[in-house]
UniProtKB/TrEMBL annotation:
Native organism: Paenibacillus illinoisensis
Keyword Signal recorded: yes
Protein name: Alpha/beta hydrolase
SUPFAM superfamilies, per database record: alpha/beta-Hydrolases (SSF53474)
Top-rank taxon, per record: Bacteria
Domain Phospholipase/carboxylesterase/thioesterase: residue ranges: 18-197
InterPro entries: AB_hydrolase_fold, Plant_Biomass_Hydrol_Est, PLipase/COase/thioEstase
Length: 224
């Protein structure tokens, strides 16, 4: 497979190629790497295929999906390239593994959240849901990207009230924007900074399990 991304796949212990599993594409923040997201998603590995994707750009001791000119202002060429590459990767891995096309999720923190929100807005029914923690939607995405989210898109957005990188208002703006573009939106403002708290960790795991179960039941109902 031709891709510019390094990634690691974790399969459920009972993985059977003849079944279909929900998948989480996990995207890290600037200066981090895929191992951070694997640790964050580890409790979900019994039920989900986990794909942790490393950004293609070196950033300090870690990696990034794009560089920025200033806060809220990504370098457009790098941003576009990562969006396109991630779309391709999601499609390729969906064919390679026993992934349920009705239960593809993206979970991201900071830069990963920015990527997750953007991809969910342009990939239609390819994406069932996202967990977007402490990010924002670039204005050029809203103005210039072809916004076509799927009709069943579910969104979990969280943001800390002490976030030193991105103010809480951005989280509220994200939630309001998705209320116009998604089937359901869960918005979780929490007391904390630019990090994932233990309580938030529990909340997004519960949300992912619940949404994936609802999606599976819906599919069963359609096939009954």
């Amino acid at each position: 497979m031709n891709t510019s991304f390094t990634y690691e796949v974790r399969l459920p212990s009972d993985y059977n190629r003849d079944q279909q599993y929900p998948v989480i594409f996990a995207l890290h923040g600037m200066g981090s790497d895929e191992q951070d997201m694997l640790r964050l998603m580890e409790p979900l590995q019994s039920d989900f295929i986990i794909v942790a994707v490393r950004g293609p750009l070196v950033q300090g001791s870690g990696y990034a999906y794009f560089q920025i000119k200033s806060i809220g202002n990504p370098v457009r060429e790098l941003f576009d390239a990562s969006v396109q590459g991630l779309q391709q990767l999601i499609g390729d891995l969906s064919s390679e593994y026993a992934i349920d096309p009705a239960r593809r999720y993206i979970a991201g923190f900071s830069q990963g959240a920015i990527m997750a929100m953007t991809i969910s807005l342009i990939m239609g029914d390819t994406i069932k849901g996202i967990v977007a923690m402490s990010g924002y939607i670039p204005q050029f995405v809203k103005d210039e990207y072809p916004i076509e989210p799927g009709t069943s898109l579910s969104v979990f957005i969280s943001h800390g009230d002490q976030d030193h990188m991105f103010p809480l208002q951005l989280g509220e703006d994200n939630a309001n924007y998705f209320r116009e573009h998604a089937r359901s939106v869960t918005y979780v403002p929490y007391h904390g900074g630019h990090h994932v708290t233990a309580e938030l960790h529990d909340q997004f795991q519960l949300w992912l399990r619940s949404d994936a179960e609802l999606a599976a039941n819906h599919t069963k109902g359609l096939n009954a």
